[in-house]
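Q: Amidophosphoribosyltransferase, please. Structure only.
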Amino acid sequence: MGQDEAGPWSESAVPFADHRDAHASLTSTAEGQDGLDPDRPDKPEEACGVFAVLASGQAVANLTYFGLYALQHRGQESAGIAVFDDVKVRLHKDMGLVSQVFDQEVLERMPGQLAIGHNRYSTTGSSKVCNAQPVVLMTRLGPLALAHNGNLVNAAELRTSLDHLAGEFTSTTDSELIAFALQEAVDSGLGWNAAIRKAAGRCRGAFSLVIGTPDGLFALRDGHGIRPLVFGLLGEPEQGQWVASSETCGLDIIGASFVDDVQPGELIHFRQADPIPERQRWCEEPPKLCVFEMIYFARPDSRFFGESLYSYRVRIGEVLARETPVEADIVIGVPDSGIPAAIGYSHVSGIPFADGLIKNRYVGRTFIQPTQAMREAGIRVKLNPLPDVLSGKRVVVIDDSIVRGTTSRKLVQALRDAGATEVHMRISSPPVTHPCFYGIDTDTQDHLIAARLTLEEIERHLGVDSLAYLTKGGMVEAAQAHSSHFCTACFDGQYPIEMDDEVRNSKLMLEPTGLAARV
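A: Structure for Amidophosphoribosyltransferase:
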């Protein structure tokens, strides 16, 4: 993959076709019974991952590669890295996984002291290479590179206010709009700090940002802190080598030590070799971390509120067992995110934990969709049950969520085919009854099974002997944090950020009639 230099920054990308994901179903079956696309994942889709390293004398592109590798679970559609070498920026981005987009040859062509990296799952803007990040623009103060995790709810309004720059747009993302708002603020005469605060003030929604400039690295979270962002030190503090990451697992992989979260509404300026960054609040709002980061999205070894998410997920399984006991022979978890909760359920219930489902560890995201014949034959791309474990057993199966119900239904049938005599499903989160507008793709409301059906109807649809969800109170209790500190809109419709009616109506397709009507 060659790199063609053009002016102060250069870009290299060899785009693939615009593919769709087809991996997440346990068993792909033909569309028909529920009218839903069988190849659309039956989980809330990931947010994006951002990563940045400011470290003179280090191979910052390689470090960022490993940081993005650790954050791969947050987005598998595209990956990109921009590296500052004094006033020049080299940018490489493409469709695919980090390991597909970058190799050692590419990374060696990206020397410098500051790198900005991004993994993408599309929320605003389709899955095309032009929408891959980071976004790199030129300003009167030199180049900027921006990577964004989240989603703006006023993107249309911001797009209209930047209409005079429309001829320069190269993508359809809200992330590019943030970058152009920042460029406009700088070109109006503001310095980097003031310009970033002004641009952020034009944005409404969820945005955790890392921004590379000739004056160092900036990290910022929206006022509610809906998407996570942390920072740490690489090497000794006096060296002033800084790392920012969506999750602490990104720090761990390169041996950086965790320092703190970028707080909700905070802007931090990291300068090369400065042992103390400049921290300031650019806005004041109540914190509203997305609770699904705790339940499902973030890696279990990432730390939130001073502990690993593995510990939290074990605890929600313990709460779930106290709230919804059942007589059974074994407890199994749906890999990977259902395993800790299943262990917790087993601890409290006394029912033995077992591995009843084996995950294909190398499936990643497959862009090859099964043929109709494969669907009818029951191709199992991701999970396979163990008859030796399941046969003749009453099984409690723990999963982290049910969104549309398509995968869960196939899972239940697979467990019965493997010999389970009873299947009791327990979900370690409340019913998902409302769509997310803040960076998670949870489909429109008319496709959310808990918004359409009652608990009894969902039981019949899935074919389970019993079904129970974790209560919202139990979910928050297990977090050992104040309930008001979380965004729980996907469970209760209480959206912390107001949005335009056009945006709201794009996903809120119906009046709640099922479980949603009881929330």
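A: Brief note, in case it's useful. Residues 1-41 have pLDDT under 50 and may be disordered.
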